Amino acid sequence: MSDKIDIQKIAKLARLKLTEIESDKLDGYLQQVVDYIDQLNQLDTSNVQPTSHVLPVHNVFRDDKGSKSKNVDYLTGAPSNNKGHYEVPKII
Amino acid sequence: MHRKTILQAKEDLLQKKYSAVELTKAIYQRIESVEPKVQAYVHLTQDIALNQAQEADQKLAAGQDAPLLGIPIALKDLICMQDTRTTCSSKMLDQFIAPYDATVVSRLKKAGAVILGKTNMDEFAMGSSTENSWHHPTMNPWDLSRVPGGSSGGSAAAVAAQECLAALGSDTGGSIRQPANFCGVTGLKPTYGRVSRFGLVAFASSLDQIGPMTKTVADSALLMNVIAGNDPQDSTSADVELPNFINSLERNLSGLKMGIPKEYFTSGIDPEVEASVQEAIKTLESLGMKKVEISLPHLQYSVATYYIIACAEASANLSRYDGVRYGYRSKNSDNLLEMYMNTRQEGFGEEVKRRIMLGTFVLSSGYYDAYYLKGQKVRTLIKQDFENAFEQCDVIIAPNSPITAFKLGERVNDPIKMYLSDIYTISANLAGIPGISIPCGISKTNEMPIGIQLMSKHFDEESLIAVGHQFQLNTEHHLKQPPL
After folding, report:
1. Is residue A51 part of a domain?
2. Can you give the pLDDT at residue B451?
3. Partner residue facing A40 (CB), from B99, B338, B374
4. Domains in chain B, ordered, with CATH?
5. B15 interfacial to chain A (CB closer than 8 Å)
6. Distance (Å) from the C-alpha of residue B407 to the closest C-alpha of chain A?
7. CA B191 to CA B207: how far, in whole Å?
8. Does A59 fall in a domain?
9. Overall average pLDDT of the B45-62 stretch
10. Catalytic site residue B175?
11. So what's the ipTM on this one?
């Protein structure tokens, strides 16, 4: 099961920049944990349904009536905002 | 005054032995005197607390009552309180000011509680020792060279060191019960969905649950009456009948069946812990409970299953920390992608990065079925183990942690060893059932507290409270206090 894990690919998916030292340490860690979790392969689960939620979940509906929203200025918590918008470095 | 339980302090306040302001000031004096050694808090909310105490005194003078009127309580620092910092013990949220109250906080306020401050934790609740805090470690009040457990280590240490009358923690894989065990206090993880998660910073959304950490089971029952219940703002909070938990305190245990899972008493458990738990089982037998041997055969797979599911959910939940809407932003980035990558590199600590990487890996294309889906299937088997067990018994009795509190630095560089210290608590989260940790002895070797764990069916916290309270009425383990 445990092929060599592509640390750089996973880090990019996770939007994490890693130093070389971090990358080496994480490589060792992931290999070790994946070897550990491979023990689940001892179990035959071909006829087992997966559980994503422990209790029966159903949509929660409410009447389609307007109500007052919380009076919160979410922008004030942003690292940078401008004219009522979040501000970020240039995209292209 | 700081040594009082909630119930005792309530009585004293009603009888005007002291005022809520005096009680609050006495607790802050206690904090001032022991906090340099324990470091349970990350920030105090003194101005807010004293205002709340004054209001409580006015209400008391007017003859009004509320469940927690004038009672000083601490909050784990991942529970939002409006206009105060909520850092999750992370650099990422160090300057974050919560824009609203968590539902549990608005309920505490409505019940008249005095909020003392925010307690330390492992960053984003990821850890079992509170050593992963970006702020500082917290010390175990019983032995300052040992960890308080985690991730709610600050809350557990604050209760044990008498720096609050009670605290709230959160439990994703044992984060209330294991530190309660290590610090010799009572810690209850309610059924998944019993308490609203609105305003709780998310770690793993299918596992997280807020619960009380207190000096006695009776105090936990009182806090449950305040914080439990359906909340329209959390669609996963369960719309089920809400009992008065205080009523369970008087229940007779005669004929109640306790299941003893044989897998919890195999290799790996400290013999002193085992002996202490067996002694507690004898006490419960003497109170009329019947012992039944049960089996939870998939226990050995719970840690692996947990780390797949918890980390997968964490990697999704923590994707929100991108330096755009709140929290930390790296200063030196030329474009948006670089800003995301740098912000997350600089803002997250080592253990958080490990778990984001593991979670991203198990969800990534080519590995999803082998790991994430497999983990969800084994979760079903673990859940079924409990369903089968509860056909034979009312309450499961087990050790809470295989060991007593370990030394600072002892496990922090060995993630798997650290993860395995949660082996007995993790499966309750995977199955969504409630669990409580109660002090049941002190180790003769290192003089650290030992805990017993009780687990019950979904939404049957009442049985845990009934058994736990009767145990505390007949033993004195919960009365022992650290030599601070």
Report:
1. no
2. 98
3. B374
4. 6-258+397-410+433-479 (3.90.1300.10)
5. no
6. 22
7. 10
8. no
9. 98
10. yes
11. 0.94
User: C-alpha angle with apex B425: B423 to B426, nearest 5 degrees?
Assistant: 70
Chain A touched by B332 (CB under 8 Å): no
Minimum Cα–Cα distance from A42: chain B residue: B301
A79 vs B: CB within 8 A: yes
Give the other-Cβ count within 10 Å of B128's Cβ.
Answer: 29
On whether any CB of chain B is under 8 Å from the CB of A74, the answer is yes
Q: Summarize pLDDT for B271-323 with one digit per residue, the tens.
A: 999 999 999 999 999 999 999 999 999 999 999 999 999 999 999 999 999 99
Query: Per DSSP, which regions of B241-316 are E strands?
Result: 257-261, 290-294
What is the DSSP annotation of B392-417?
T-SEEEEES-SS-PPBTTSSTT-HHH
A58 touches chain B (CB under 8 A): no
Contacts of A89 in chain B (CB under 8 A): 333-336, 338-339
- Asked if residues B363 and B315 have their Cβ atoms less than 8 Å apart, the reply is yes
**Which residues on A lie below 8 Å from B235 (Cβ)?**
59-60
Sequence-separated (6 or more) residues with CB below 8 Å from residue B258: B281, B284, B289, B290, B291, B292, B393, B394, B395, B396, B397, B467
**Where in the sequence is the domain holding A21, given as residue range(s)?**
1-37
Q: 3-class SS at B329? A: coil
Give me the pLDDT at residue A77, please. 87
- Report yes or no on A19 lying in a domain: yes
pLDDT per residue as tens digits for the range B200-245: 999 999 999 999 999 999 999 999 999 999 999 999 999 999 999 9
- Yes or no: say if B71 and B114 are a contact pair by the CB < 8 Å rule: yes
Give the closest of B307, B324, B354 to A88, CB-based.
B324
What pLDDT digit, counting tens, does each position of B84-125 carry?
999 999 999 999 999 999 999 999 999 999 999 999 999 999
- Using the Cβ of A53 and the Cβ atoms of chain B, whether some distance falls under 8 Å is answered with yes
Please name the residue that has the structure tokens 């330096």: B323
CB contact under 8 A, B344 and A37: no
A67 falls within a domain: no
- Residue of A29, A54, A74, A88 to mutate when probing chain B, most B C-beta within 10 A: A54
Helix (H) or strand (E) holding B41: strand B41-44
Q: B133-192 pLDDT, tens per residue?
A: 999 999 999 999 999 999 999 999 999 999 999 999 999 999 999 999 999 999 999 999
Structure confidence by residue, pLDDT tens digits, B369-416: 999 999 999 999 999 999 999 999 999 999 999 999 999 999 988 888
Average model confidence (pLDDT) for chain A? 90
pLDDT for A1: 47
Please give the pLDDT value at position A60: 85
Q: Does A88 touch chain B (CB under 8 A)?
A: yes
Closest CA to B130 of B428, B411, B355: B411
The enclosing domain of A9 has a CATH number of 1.10.20
- Tell me which residue in A33, A74, A89 faces B333 most closely, judged by beta carbons: A89
Determine which one of B89, B175, B248, B437 is catalytic. Answer: B175
Q: Whole-model pTM above 0.80?
A: yes
> What's the total number of domains in chain A?
1
Q: What percent of chain B has pLDDT over 90?
A: 96
CB–CB contact A74 B99 (8 Å): yes
